[in-house]
Structure formats: C-alpha cells, structure tokens
Protein 1
Amino acid sequence: MDTLLPLARQVGEKLKARKETVGVSESSAGGLISAVLLAVPGASAYFMGGAVVYTRPAGEAFLTATPSRRAGIRSSSEPWATLAAEQMPARLEGVAVRKASPAGRV
C-alpha cells in the first residue's frame, strides 16, 4: 500500500483540481483501489463510492449486470471491466448532488 499512496495522492490532486469525482467498481483488486484512494486525507472531495463485485450475483445486485448484459463476457476481462465501469455512474447518480446540499450532509 505504501508504494501506491504517492500515486493515489496524485490522482486525488488532479481530480480536485479538475473538480471531478470518481466511483470505483472492483473485482479481483478486492477493494485495494478504493482503500488506497481513501487513505489520502480529503478523499471525500472526489471519492463518491464503489463496490467490490467479485461474483455474478454481486454483479447483478450492485451493477445490474443481468445475464443478458454480460452474455459472452468473461469475468476478469477488459469487456467485464468496461461493463462495470459503465454502470458505476448510474449507480452513484445523485451522490454528488446530495453531497453539495445546503446542510452539507450526504
């Protein structure tokens, strides 16, 4: 993790400078990507959330990756990563709006 923290700091600084956010969907990484991004102080400015989606049932539950959507897609593959990445914005829709509410609460 220590070797990843400098990179996570750089990512966080760039996201904050661009006023962008990130949502993470992980599988074989098992939460490591989220953990290293969240280890940086101030991560709540850009980290909206994520999920560790390791099994097909989890994919259906968290990413709405139904059997028809994932037909012909093997797990731990670039097409699966693309499918998962495409689903995260929809799953986190409204998170940034709630975060910026006048009460300042999520």
Protein 2
Amino acid sequence: MEWLLGGLLILALLARKKPAAQDHKLEARIAELENEQELIMKKLALLLTLLPTAALAQQTTIYGPNGNIVGQVTTDRQGSKTFYDAHGNIGARSSTDSAGTTTVYGPNGRPVGSFTQKDRK
C-alpha cells in the first residue's frame, strides 16, 4: 500500500510540473505579444505624426549629415511649431504671440524660455 501512495505522490508531482512549464511558455508568449504590441503602437504613433491633417499647414523633415532623418518640424495654422525627434517623440513646441515673443515649451508642456526677434532693416 505504501508503494501505491508513493507512486501516486510521484505522479501528482510530475503532473504539477507540467502546468508550471506550460505557464512559463504562456508567460513568455504574453511578454512577446506585449513587446510586439508596444512596437506596433510606437510605429503607429510615428505614422500619425507624419500624416497630414487639417490642423497642419506645413511639415519639414530634418536630415543629419549622413542622410538619416533626425527629426521633423510641423507648423500649424496659427504658426506654432512642434519639433519631433527621429522616433516621433515630441522634443519641444514653440508659439509666437501678437507682440512677436516666441515661447519655447519642453516635451512636458512647460515653458523653458522665450525670445523676441526685432525687425532688421
């Protein structure tokens, strides 16, 4: 009778290991899908920044010395500019008021500085 209980215990332990291995595979697959989803979302965000919309009047691509894209600048109808890095992340924004003062905002939306350009003759 003891050998039967011992055998059942071994079978129970072996059966217990199988789901753990399956769980590990499932967790790895979930992590893989989450990484794929994150990559797709980043590509989509970049694509959306490149698409012209009604609010965008102008878009300029900035190239580095080796010919790679290093960023982009978009200008909306009011003349405000948004500066993007090569990955589509906002680096800065700027807007100019009616007095000619341009305020520059960081990626978090907080002002980082301002300047006024005088007319040159």
Protein 3
Amino acid sequence: MRRLALLLAALCGADLDAPMPALKVTLHHGAHDRRYAPPDEDALARVEFCAYCEDPHTEGSLARGLTALQGARDYKITSKLVYALPNDASTKPMNVDELTGNVALVHRSATPLVQKILHAQDAGAVGVVLVDDGRCESDLNCGRIGSARLGGFAPRDDPSSWRLVKIPSVLVSQETGKRIRRLMPLEHFEVPKLGTQWVSPRSAASHMRRRGARPPARPPEPTRPARRRRRPEEL
C-alpha cells in the first residue's frame, strides 16, 4: 500500500524532487576488503545494503558477489542503488537522471555483461550490481561466465571492451537480487517497447507523462448477474 500511495502522490502532482525512501549500497573489494575476505576468496566482493540508513557498511545486510576479472579490482563506493530502465540495460538507460552518481541495478540477459556496464557508465552510474537470472549456482559458479576459481566474472571477454570500463561491477546471485529488491520502493510497470519493468514510483510517474507508459490494467470488478423478471404466467 505504501508503494501505491507513493506512485499516486507522484501522479497527482506531488513534488517529484522530494526525498523518497532509498536503498543504499556499499561495494568493496581489493585493499578495502582484505581484512574481511580470506585469501582464497579474492574474486568475491562485499555487497552491503540497507534502507533508511546512513552507512551500509556498519548498518546493512551483507552478500557476496563476483567482481569482474578484467574490470576495477580495488574499490570501495557507497551510494544509492537505482534500477536501470530497461532493467537489463540492453540499451542505453532511459532514467539517466536517476542513475547519475548512483549504483545501477541491472538484470543479466543475453546482452554481454560488459555492454550493460558500459551503458550504465555512460548514463553516469558510479558502479553496477548485476543480478544473475538463475544460471549461476548458489556458490556463484557461473560456468563460462566465471566463478571464484576463475578469478571473477567475464574471464573470456575481449579485453579491448573492458579497457573502456572505469567503474566497479559485481555479479550477485538471483536470490541476493530478490533480497535487495524487497527493500526498494518499486512498481511493476508496463513501458512501451520494453514490456513490464521494475521502476521507482518517481520514474513511473515521469514515464507515464512523457512516453505514454501505463500501469498494468486492473482486473474488472466482478458484476452480479441481472435478475430475470418473471413473466405473469410464471407467477
């Protein structure tokens, strides 16, 4: 109900720039993570997240994710976590204003992971959390996509594309993605040419106004069948 109220307030002309509940995330790996990570887990980054908090590192929940083998390896960043739109960042994000200066949350799909990261980077994101689609095992053994044993994700990618990447990225399991999503103020929204997407209430209101997007249709209210009037001869 709270999410629906936020969306309705935005659609009815409320201040879209007013502060809204946000999920904060801290990503760290390398020198910033050595006191926590065993030597045999060098490929795993820490993902700490919380809502209504100042510091995810001290107040948040913890998950592990694979860092990129060819990307940034020494980092610690804290920012808001924002869903890319489209959620899989297969094309340049439509919600650049929301992503700028924040960490992008992105679904895994058929698009190469490095391409998704570059799309988020070009939109101003300072980091990317990639959510697996279920193809990785619980220990983040993702086959050809990568694993802790292989040193991270995307070990077989062409290095030339990764040279363009300047921001950190972490691949988390599908279950971790669900944990994160439960803490975010989101709406399932129908966006033209993209289908159903997870968006913030503010983004939903904005796209409804600018692009003709619409919330999923509500099922029709059940109607009572009309009572048949009996003929005089039936009385």
